[in-house]
Design goal:
Rossmann fold; GI Alpha 1, domain 2-like; 2 domains; six-stranded mixed β-sheet; nucleotide-binding
């Protein structure tokens, strides 16, 4: 009987402890703000996730950064190969400045494709961060022979390749091409360790969700990124429960580019408008606020200011658009760039005012690769139905 009573007490104690544990978990859940990051492919949302990890989370140790070496080299290789292919596919065709460099074309095009672990991720595996570089992502040194690096460096400075690069809007070329090709001599070194900026710039396609956890002003945030490919959007609806707000990322500089996976030649910026419209009017999001990041402002500024391609060629309504009087007050930016970025913002905001919904959209201009200008980003939760940006040097809307 005494033994039975003891067992009963132990069982009650276990139940009590379990109840306390569940209560703590419930309290933690209620105190955590869950932010869902959405956007089309190439919008820069994964870069933003990395930025949050650098600014507010665990950051990237040297071992973590080594995890990205193979993918950085893959990005560089993809870039030089696409530029070489463009010499013949662009109309009119482009010739290399030096005919003898044709032998280097053969070298970069025949270099073997490096072996990978079969599934790309954007983060070193959380379960073993201290061994991520050595165990989870081994660098295939044989995939990049010395002759590949020599040929890449020679071709990149050839005037013909530079002409193809200037015409990059006419074919699919990763945004990070110039950044990594300019650093070929560093990236080829056996002792190369990527910088945080390299990690921000590397482009890795993933069909997996990504999570970043960080704390700002003693408030815990869970930020989730869902794959941006068109065939992954069916998963988005599964993520809307229990979220505090949505971060939607728009590639503002994509106004003269088409989607890489589109047979119809769909404009990247137009696709973002379409997807945003779909989300904004979804019955699942009627009470969820949207923090809108009009991203890649650095690239938009370069395109507009250099006169590469007029926005009105792709969005004719831009021709009649007038910059709001408050937009250029005190700004030293090119007036045409200011007009372009506010036009893009206006197109999105027209979607939010066209329907009678109960949620709010907060638009902001961003450049997710700019760590210095990201320092002022702060989220101040008002309640579980609204998040407001209090201070933002990154988002100077």
């Amino acid at each position: 009987m005494a033994k039975s009573g003891k067992n009963w007490k132990e069982m009650c104690k276990k139940v009590f402890n379990k109840d306390q544990e569940l209560e703590r978990e419930q309290n933690d859940f209620q105190k955590t703000y869950r932010l869902l990051v959405l956007g089309t492919k190439e919008s820069g949302k994964t870069t933003m996730m990395k930025q949050m990890r650098i600014l507010y989370g665990a950051g990237y140790t040297e071992r973590d950064r080594k995890y990205f070496i193979q993918d950085i080299r893959l990005n560089l290789k993809e870039s030089i190969q696409k530029l070489v292919e463009a010499l013949k596919t662009l109309e009119p065709q482009i010739e290399l400045e030096r005919s003898r460099n044709q032998s280097h074309v053969a070298v970069v095009m025949r270099s073997p494709v490096p072996h990978t672990n079969g599934s790309f991720t954007v983060e070193p595996p959380r379960e073993s961060p201290s061994h991520s570089a050595e165990v989870h992502h081994v660098v295939d040194k044989d995939a990049f022979p010395e002759e590949f690096w020599d040929s890449t460096e020679i071709l990149w400075i050839d005037a013909g390749i530079q002409t193809a690069y200037r015409r990059r809007a006419e074919f699919q070329l990763p945004d990070n091409s110039k950044y990594f090709l300019d650093r070929t001599s560093e990236i080829r070194r056996p002792d190369y360790v990527p910088s945080e900026q390299d990690v921000l710039r590397v482009r890795i396609q993933s069909s997996k969700s990504m999570e970043t956890i960080f704390t700002v002003d003693n408030v815990r945030y869970n930020m989730f990124d869902v794959a941006g490919q068109r065939d992954q959007r069916g998963k988005w609806l599964q993520c809307f429960n229990n979220i505090t707000a949505i971060f939607f990322v728009v590639p503002a500089s994509g106004y003269n580019l088409v989607l890489q996976d589109s047979e119809e030649g769909t404009n990247r910026l137009a696709e973002s408008f379409h997807v945003f419209n779909m989300l904004w009017n979804s019955k699942w999001l009627t009470r969820k606020s949207v923090i809108l990041f009009l991203n890649k402002m650095d690239q938009l500024r370069e395109k507009i200011s250099s006169g590469q391609a007029g926005l009105e060629l792709f969005f004719p309504e831009f021709q009649a658009y007038t910059t709001p009087s408050y937009a250029s007050s005190g700004s030293t930016d090119d007036p045409e760039f200011i007009r372009a970025k506010y036009f893009i913002r206006n197109e999105i905001m027209k979607i939010t005012t066209a329907s009678n919904t109960q949620h709010v959209c907060y638009p902001h201009f961003t450049s997710a690769i700019d760590t210095e200008n990201s320092e002022g980003l702060r989220w101040v939760p008002r309640d579980h139905s609204e998040i407001k940006i209090q201070q933002a040097t990154l988002c100077d809307a």
